[in-house]
Amino acid sequence: MTAVAVIGAGAGGAAAVTELSLGGHEVRWWNRNPATIEPFREHGGVRYEGVLGEGVATPASFATDLGSALAGAELAMVCLPSLAHELVAEALVAAQVSCPVLLNPGHTCGALHVANVFRERGVEPPPLVELSTLTYVARKPDASTVRITGAAGRVWAGCLPGSEEALRLAQEIYPAAVAARDVLASSLANVNLVLHTPGAILSAAWVEATGGDFRFYVDSMTPGVARSIDALDRERLAVAAAYDHALPARTEEMAAIGTAEATAAARGDTQAAIAGGEANRLIKAPDSLDHRYYAEDFGYGLVPMLELARIGGVVVPYASALVEVASALRGEPLAASGLTAERLGIAGLDRGGLLELVRGPA
């Protein structure tokens, strides 16, 4: 069994603590904000319900600081939104992390971003591996409980050159993780950059009018939204192809994960596949334009995809338009404030240079 330091006490982190603890792994749990993890500590662990059963999962320790969580850990797993990656990377630098780091999920270009944070601070990055999507569909109905409505049947795991040990450990604790050729493939397999962004734009007025009192994956999954998702997905696949990756279509990927209805996905019916996914069926829409579907999935999902498209010589007008509209809705220039080439450490690279960075010398 593996000694894992889980970083993050949101729904994803709580679900990871649950599954890994139930699986016999030694879990040390830490969160930057002690107030978030304190309710779990008071209840002696994570009260969980859903596809993993019901009960209380108890980690080996609730760490008071990151250093104690990392001491003796074989793997550090970050289960946080990509908005938090930079701060967590800085904390890992300060704690002098020496074990491999797993980003669950990596979102879009998470490994490149975290590695660049280390290099900007004059520190060699640890072995890094990222997962294409969070290994759970989970929400917290209260401060000490996680409801897990889905556990991924397949995710892609991409690592940076020299991080093969991190990849091995990721696959050891998550047998559903399939090795991707590089982190461009795992990043562009990120479900949320295509799944969330068209619907977030096209239901924005509904979100503001109702505070998100509707089911995002069902009520707002209209034929027009489904066609918009398909249009964006074609651009994503074109970007992947520019780097020699033939990735599955979005609904096919979701069916493999377990978040889309498989029969509809097989016949290419995006609307029915997404709306029929049991794991996401009851999830409410964002309650405001500050929700992560807006704050994260555009600037930290589509913006890095735009950078990969530019370097790969791919024109992506619909993705660009979505970022522009989201910028107007939120009142901030997301193309400049999101994960730019500079923040990813890939500014000035051409296609060949980027491929060498993520795959090593040919």
Task: Give an account of the 3D structure.
The chain is α/β, with parallel strands linked by helices and about 350 residues long. Helix content is about 45%, strand content about 15%. The protein is built from 20 helices and 12 strands. The protein is globular, with a radius of gyration of 19 Å. The two termini are about 35 Å apart. About 50% of the residues are buried.
Keywords:
12 strands; 15% strand; 362 residues; 4-stranded mixed β-sheet; alpha/beta; 20 helices; 8-stranded mixed β-sheet
Task: Give the strand line-up of the largest sheet.
Answer: 5-2-1-6-7-8-11-12
Mean pLDDT, rounded to whole units? 96
What best-fitting shape do the alpha-carbon axes yield? globular
Described by its quaternary structure, the protein is single chain
Distance between the termini: 35 Å
Number of helical elements: 20
Overall radius of gyration: 19 Å
Strand proportion, as a percent range, falls in 5-15%
Summarize the biggest pleated sheet: 8 strands, mixed
Tell me the number of strands.
12
Helical fraction: 40-55%
Provide the low-confidence segments as ranges.
none
Structural class: alpha/beta
